[in-house]
Amino acid sequence: MWDAVYDVSDYVYGEQPNDFLRNNVNALPRGKVLCLADGEGRNSVFLAKLGFEVTAVDLSEVAIKKAKTLAQEHNVEIHFIHADLSEFDLGCNHWDAIVSIFCHLPPGLRRPVHAKVVKALKTNGVFLAESYTPKQLEFKTGGPSSADMMYSEKIISTELSELNFLLLEEKERFIQEGSKHNGDSHVVQVIARKESD
């Protein structure tokens, strides 16, 4: 499915980083950052240009090929991994930051991935995420077609309860990211820190 989505000439989510990530990048500790479901590379390239040591994982080989092209155009090095998050090992106490931008997963996968995120962050590591909420279905401006794939403050606070939330907020905002995310939207935004093992 995702290969077909990305198999077009343009960057379907644009070449610029997600606004929430760009506006809050200073919340991320310098060092190793993992970008989950990074797609065509807009966010990993942005972070690499700022000097982060970036690893990006995605399910789509087509997206990774486009991401590599974007990285070359910006003269940055990124470690790209083609993997399904159901099988990908995030490691233990390994990442200074983990970034998840519109990485929508079914509940049966989302919960174990969130558990892996907590385990994989170093002490004082930061998780930064933006996702659509079920209310996004009313806007029809991007994201999954099923509420089961959406996130909320309650889901995040429950499944990432071991982290200290610096920001956890549902809000309406205008998003313009390529052809796939375009218009008024409803999102949940997260910045959370791992205080200890």
TrEMBL record:
Q: What is this protein called?
A: SAM-dependent methyltransferase
Annotated Gene Ontology MF terms? methyltransferase activity
Q: Does the keyword Glycoprotein apply?
A: no
Q: Where is the chain membrane-spanning?
A: none
Q: Name one GO biological process term.
A: methylation
- Source domain of life is Bacteria
List UniProt keywords, sorted A-Z. Methyltransferase, Transferase
Instruction: Identify the residues that the record assigns to the Methyltransferase domain, covering every copy.
Output: 33-125
Name its species: Vibrio albus
